[in-house]
Design goal:
By secondary structure, this protein is an all-alpha fold. The protein has one domain. It has 10 helices and no strands. The radius of gyration is 22 Å and the shape is flat.
Length: 257
């Protein structure tokens, strides 16, 4: 097996993963933006590690499950939920929550989102690795494919971390970008759902192809609307809470002295 050919194939895998990891960097940045400064680095490292590990598992094991009916519909709904959760974080007033639990909560969000988003990405990575492995050594194609995938994805971790750090800095400076990131996840969710094999049983494939962009746009709009409604309802509820006065009684007017 030519070493030059192997490295060329590995670089192709790295390139594909970097291109496809833009959404992962967005999720990591959104999930880690509320962490304390000292926790952010580990949030990015663990988030990127989880993203790459899941992508390796999916590429090697689960790529063939892409054709299963309802898999993408369920995954898309899950991703919509993740996107809305990122727009409507839990109340920050509970001081009993330790930083470590917040860190693992951020990693969990990254894992859930990446499980869904990796479903499409692994097809391109697996196809590139399979083609390259067959070209290098057909007799040992399976082993070469596994090595190429593992090496290519693991070496892309620093690039994902760098992208996440850049996005997090932008989110700190321009908080409105949080909405743009959540909308992107909604777009990906709609795009995934319209490709589910179950829909082909009820709709013409040509129609589904035409609905590709409308479905993605609908996912983005859904996330923004639901996120805005939940935030608005929380703000109204907070404003309607009775005031605790200096007298210590809820709802009583302050005493005049």
């Amino acid at each position: 097996m030519s070493q030059t050919a192997f490295w060329i194939a590995a670089l192709k895998i790295i390139g594909i993963n970097v291109i496809l990891s833009g959404d992962n960097a967005v999720v990591i940045a959104l999930a880690c933006r509320m962490l304390p400064a000292k926790e952010r680095f580990w949030g990015m490292v663990l988030g990127a590690g989880v993203a790459v590990l899941l992508r390796i598992v999916f590429t090697l094991v689960v790529a063939e499950a892409m054709g299963y009916q309802f898999l993408k519909l369920i995954g898309g709904v899950l991703l919509l939920w993740v996107a809305v959760k990122l727009l409507v974080p839990e109340d920050e007033g509970d001081e009993k929550i330790e930083a470590a639990s917040n860190l693992w909560k951020a990693v969990r969000i990254v894992a859930i989102a990446d499980i869904v988003m990796s479903l499409d990405n692994v097809i391109a990575i697996a196809a590139a690795a399979e083609t390259a492995a067959a070209t290098l050594d057909l007799a040992h194609a399976s082993s070469i494919k596994a090595v190429l995938i593992g090496f290519g994805l693991v070496t892309s971790v620093p690039m994902i971390i760098a992208g996440s750090a850049l996005l997090m800095a932008l989110l700190d400076r321009f908080p409105i970008l949080v909405w743009a990131g959540a909308a992107l996840l909604g777009w990906v969710a709609g795009d995934i759902m319209i490709k589910d094999a179950a829909l082909a049983r009820f709709f013409d494939p040509a129609l589904l192809e035409k609905l590709h962009y409308p479905a993605a746009a609908a996912g983005a709009i859904f996330v923004l609307l639901v996120g805005a409604l939940i935030r608005r309802s929380r703000n109204i509820a907070a404003m309607e809470e009775p005031m605790i006065t200096r007298a210590g009684h809820i709802g009583d007017p302050p005493k005049k002295h």
